[in-house]
Design goal:
Blueprint lengths: L8 H4 L14 H23 L4 H6 L5 H8 L6 E3 L15 E8 L2 E8 L12 H15 L3 E5 L21 H11 L4 E5 L2 E3 L1 H7 L3 E5 L3 E3 L3 H5 L9 H16 L5 H4 L8 E3 L2 H13 L24 H4 L10 H6 L7 E3 L8 E8 L2 E8 L20 E2 L1 H17 L3 E7 L1 E2 L3 H5 L2 H15 L3 E10 H6 L9 E6 L4 E3 L3 H18 L5 H16 L3 H7 L4 E2 L5 H12 L14 H6 L1
Parallel strand pairs: 3-4, 4-5, 5-7, 6-8, 7-9, 12-14, 13-15, 14-16, 16-17, 16-18, 17-19
Antiparallel strand pairs: 1-2, 2-3, 10-11, 11-12
């Protein structure tokens, strides 16, 4: 056993196995999935290469944001998020910040870096919402928030897209104050010119570390030079602005001389860019965190089966079924688990597993035919991916037990929705769906989502989706992800069925209406693809199948780093209820 020993080791040292070796390699399926992953990788490279070249920055003695992150983050731990997020469809096609989870000095942190290759890290439309998503992660996981700041202020030509509003660019400053109120530290390394909104990013964190050439101010030189407006610019105003701009370029407001040697806002000033990052590491090292062994229930172990099997297991064709337990076997430590109520609510899997030696709850949509006589309230056959009465009850119970035992939850969605029709209504689908949402909210648990394939209809909400704002930490998509209110063909039928009847009864050609239906089907397909889901923010990142476990490890390790509440392992009910 580890240095501390392990509580309840008869339960967790050797749990029942799940999964078996891959029966066959599905070569075409592998190619289809990897082609989409290549498309996403191309989009990621586009974002990384946008703006100024890295070489041009380096020639000026400046590292790019990507280089700063590579230096700062412990090797092999970076889990990027929101890389191609672009909710406002910017000219730049990104939000101007880079973010994700990563270890610094051995501790999990949430990191945001200004993309100094694009307008010197300016505020762009959509950036505020991106930042708020990231600060949500810090808040929910109680992780330190680290800024690698290089913000030239707002993109003034588009101020109406970013300045005001409830979730506008001032909101993150209030969120910084909230994090500190909750005892969550914010550490910022400051580079370059940070006027106006960039200045508040500099001053609102807990610890300020500056490069020697950095400055932070309420307003930059250009703003200060234009503080006496006449309503128009004439020759006199232009000449005055030229003179003031030259002066402030030489001695910008808020430089180190002011905010280190004068106000003392900047704790440290560093001669090199690397020294700023080294200082961040020093401060993170001193932050509170439990040693991992404090919460582990067993030694970490890799799954028995390789992650590459997922490319054969998860069908690219959405109409094909597959064994969800085999997917889980490629995520769990040593491919072991404890399943909750396996003979009840067979459309969903609920169970405990170990991730990097930590306990975690899992809920997933089973696939395929569910067996004769199920659901027992209906005379039709139940199919996996759809939710029925027993499954909704089972998930509510499991979420409640995990909340009681303070066990983080990971959801794997592949759902076509909730059972519908009068028979389903009598079986209380509406009330039980809402009951599950209540159980999730009541649990007060951080949760991670994976939309493995379909995230459809109200089931997308009730299965711990991104809409669970107080619980869902982040949601991942894959190359097989589709998110829509219903399948395109179903939507077309719902929208145009009556028109078809009318056309038929009036003896009109059905062709025009059928064309509209087919156009709608194509539009649904285009607007549910993985890249579109990530750009719109329906998922926080599209991740290669073989990297899913890495994100699971990051989430679970982050949860146990400094939790707000603890249930001792020997006081847990969930494993005892499972064993009986």
């Amino acid at each position: 056993m580890g240095d501390y020993g392990y509580a309840m080791h008869p339960y967790f040292k050797e749990m029942p196995g799940i999964g078996k070796p891959l029966a066959r390699v599905a070569q075409q399926n592998i190619e289809d999935i990897k082609n989409v992953e290549a498309e996403i990788a191309k989009e990621v490279e586009r974002v990384k290469n946008s703006g100024k070249s890295t070489e041009a920055l380096n020639q000026k003695g400046e590292m790019s944001a990507w280089q700063r992150l590579e230096y700062l983050v412990d090797p092999g731990t970076w889990c990027p998020l929101h890389t191609i997020y672009d909710p406002a469809h910017n000219e730049e096609r990104n939000t101007g910040v880079i973010d994700g989870l990563g270890k610094i000095a051995g501790k999990w942190t949430v990191i945001i870096a200004s993309n100094n290759k694009v307008m010197a890290g300016a505020w762009l439309a959509g950036q505020a919402d991106n930042i708020l998503r990231v600060t949500d992660i810090a808040k929910r996981l109680r992780l330190p928030l680290v800024w690698v700041l290089n913000c030239s202020g707002a993109k003034l030509m588009e101020q109406e897209e970013l300045y005001a509003n409830r979730r506008g660019n001032g909101t993150p400053f209030f969120r910084h104050a909230e994090l500190q109120k909750l005892g969550i530290p914010i550490i910022v390394g400051i580079y370059g010119t940070n006027p106006a909104g960039g200045g508040y990013h500099s001053i609102s964190p807990t610890v300020l570390i500056a490069h020697k050439n950095a400055n932070m101010a309420v307003g930059g030189g250009g703003i200060v030079g234009g503080m006496n407006p006449k309503g128009y610019v004439d020759d006199e105003a232009a000449a005055s602005l030229i003179e003031e701009t030259r002066k402030f370029k030489a001695t910008p407001p808020g430089r180190v001389e002011i905010h280190h040697y004068g106000t003392g806002f900047m704790r440290d000033v560093c001669d090199t860019e690397e020294e700023v990052l080294d200082d961040i590491k020093k401060y993170v090292k001193d932050l509170p965190a439990y040693a991992p062994a404090f919460f582990r229930v067993a030694e970490p172990a890799e799954p028995k089966f390789p992650a590459s099997d997922l490319y054969s297991l998860v069908p690219f064709n959405q109409k094909r079924v597959y064994p969800m337990p085999e997917v889980l076997a490629r995520l769990f430590d040593n491919s072991e688990h404890m399943e909750f109520k396996p003979d009840y609510g067979p459309e969903v899997y609920c169970g405990l597993a170990k991730i990097d030696g930590f306990l975690c709850g899992f809920i997933a949509n089973n696939q395929g035919i569910l067996g004769k006589g199920y659901p027992n309230y209906a005379d039709y056959q139940g199919i996996g991916g759809k939710l029925y009465r027993e499954g909704l009850i089972k998930m509510s119970e499991f979420v409640t037990f995990c909340g009681r035992d303070r066990l983080p939850l990971i959801w794997l969605q592949d759902t076509t929705g909730i059972d519908v029709g009068d028979t389903a209504e009598k079986a209380e689908m509406l009330g039980l769906g809402m009951s599950l949402i209540y159980s999730i909210e009541q649990s007060d648990l951080p949760m991670m989502g994976i939309i493995l394939r379909k995230g459809t209809a109200a089931a997308h909400y009730v299965l711990g989706g991104p809409q669970a704002n107080n619980n869902n930490v982040f949601t991942l998509g894959t190359a097989t992800t589709e998110v829509y209110v219903m399948h395109g063909e179903t939507a077309a039928a719902a929208s145009y069925a009556r028109r078809l009847v009318k056309d038929k009864d009036e003896g009109k050609s059905l062709e025009p209406t059928m064309q509209k239906m087919n156009d709608m089907i194509k539009d649904y397909y285009a607007k549910s693809r993985p890249a579109y889901c990530a750009q719109k923010g329906w998922v926080d990142e599209i991740v290669d199948l073989e990297k899913l476990r890495k994100y699971c490890e990051a989430f679970v390790g982050s949860y146990y780093q400094n939790p707000a509440s603890i249930c001792a392992v020997h006081q847990m009910l969930t494993p005892r209820v499972i064993r009986g």
